[in-house]
Amino acid sequence: MTISLSPQDWLDFFVHFASLSLLGIGGAITTAPDMHRYLVDERNWLTDATFSSSIALAQSAPGPNVLFVALMGWHIGINAGGGFSAGASAWGLGLMGVALSMLGILLPSSVLTYKATKWAHQNRNLISVRAFKSGMAPIVIGLLVSTGWLLSVPQNDYAKNWKLWLVTFIATLVVTRTSVHLLWLIAAGGLVGATGIL
Amino acid sequence: MSSVTSELSHPKSKTELFVVFTFLALQGFGGVLAVVQNELVDRRKWMTKAQFVEEWSVAQVMPGPNVANLCLMIGGKYFGLPGAMAALMGLLFAPLMIVLALAILFGGVADSPTAQGALKGMGAVSAGLIIATGLKLSTTLPQNPMGMRTAILFAALSFALVGIFRFPLIWALFGLGIVACFLTYRALKQLPTTLDTKPKSEEP
Fold first, then answer.
1. Chain A contact present for B85, CB below 8 A
2. In this structure, are A36 and A113 located in the same domain?
3. Is residue A44 over pLDDT 60?
4. Per the structure, how many domains does chain A have?
């Protein structure tokens, strides 16, 4: 897929990610539907398949999931440069896409978070600040468990997924009861999965 | 910072922050949060569980990538803006290189059945890691100013709302969150003396 992006387009691209940065409460992934609408449907900068594989790859690779944004930027830059085989100019645009998309998604929210944290630290004895931190604690703990829960039951296909649940259950048990390094558990999960019995 | 416990450790330099967060990020398959909690609280003892929950509450409520927020908050706590940048760069840089390399090599996810199977297995484990992180942190609930029962009730409600009834996360954060913060506010107001006792109430 080959596209062409004017400087104005690149600016729009940056502004799109920057505006989503402040909307993504609960993580950048919550704004993925809007990215899809803009990048795939409206501007035709990415194919549907590349969009989905960017998310899947970032989730399966090590590191924070927000890197799916960088992959989208990379693919759009490569597309704008005439494809990966076009050589250095395409790679340069790819890297520019990475830089602009990551700056866009991170900068506004990071500035806000940094300022807010600093303020909260300076006013940490205010009852309202303490009420916020302690009051939100049970909520975010419940949310954590539900995030793991939702990851382990993507479909309610009980007959097919019981083995995956068993793995999740064992992992939960091992982490809460022992101090085995998490990396071993992930590796074990990968090995068991690779045999195809899951 | 309060002089909470003498056994708490802390990073010595921005370089250490960068290195620690790089290693954290590289271990995070299917999300980094479980690794951050395990490494910074259980292993390195940079903070207590209760402090971690407080930081995570803020990181979760602020817009933007949660773990990125958490890292820059932790980095900023020790070394200000340069520390925040060091932690954030550590979190992002190495994984970014890996993800780009994978995109170039495979152009997408590897779709061999073996790789798919391995990813499935790792996904199931990382779901367990996140659940375990939540359960471990729930041991801080009895010390919550709202009282143990109310705190557990709110944790259960937010789990049910999002995990069982599949409401968007924002409902729990803001709907339940406002009520919980209000109740905590009232509870804290009734105990004005706790204002002066700086050390967190989770002290053994």
1. no
2. yes
3. yes
4. 2
